[in-house]
């Protein structure tokens, strides 16, 4: 018998070991239910029953298939005939690292969100809260990519309604801040993305509109205007999102060493501690850039395709609430967006409130609760 060389023996051993490894599980089809696990205490809505974290198939950048996670919360008691109507909760910015995922760490604004979602629960709605692709699941999160978030929200509802027999197929989407942008994009595409579901409408508060107009101006010459740590964190998350969605841009080449440090740190650090650190170290936005982002060819158009909000095509009622003291989003741009939707004869109900970004969430509920009730009538 011919003897094998040591190299050949090692190659055979390596191939055998590879064949003995379990094959990586492919992502389920979009809207397909994959598995469940218990929710952490931090991510469990007080007053809900039988709450779970579940994984489902959806898509990410370039419509690539992936697995995402979500939480589902049920009201106590017996469901009505036909099942609990569904509120799809599109959460605001928590960060883009896996540890920041809503179904892992819970909300960033704990008292506010639990009060808000608890009120919807008491109104007799089950809640499906998608984490968005890359948050607590494989891959990177393309922060503020509206079409990706719309797919994630719709697919979470599709998966939940197919798996949990007590859920109805009629649903609305409700979102705040990042989630408001997600809710608006979902409102535009829900009917097309969710065949077999009964989509009724949307609620959005603190909607970030026309961000592309501001981001195009970023560069080393940006004046040192005092911004909150959270606002700077949002910009860092967007830069990370662009790295994920458009690696060909080589975003790092537009950054100083300080800029690369903070963008890399933002990739894993959640909003609360990141915003605090940015404030404590008095980070100035202009110091993060080595050259203007406007040097990127058609950067404004690229941004609009990535995070711009649709101005037409809404086929169900949309409620938007905006705080007039909101500085987390650019309030004049949100007002402009509402005016454009109205001029385009979109089915918009728009309300303003004398409060800030966070305060609008609860201030809007006396208007949004009857709005949603009528959607299910």
From TrEMBL:
> Highest taxon of the source?
Bacteria
Output the InterPro entries linked to this UniProt entry: AB_hydrolase_fold (IPR029058), Lipase_secreted (IPR005152)
Keywords of this protein's UniProt record, alphabetized?
A: Signal
Signal peptide range in chain numbering = 1-26
Does the keyword section mention Signal? yes
Coiled coil location = none
Please report a single Pfam family linked to this protein: LIP
Keyword Signal (UniProt): yes
PANTHER family recorded for this chain?
A: LIPASE 5 (PTHR34853:SF1), PTHR34853
What is the official name of this protein in its record? Lipase family protein
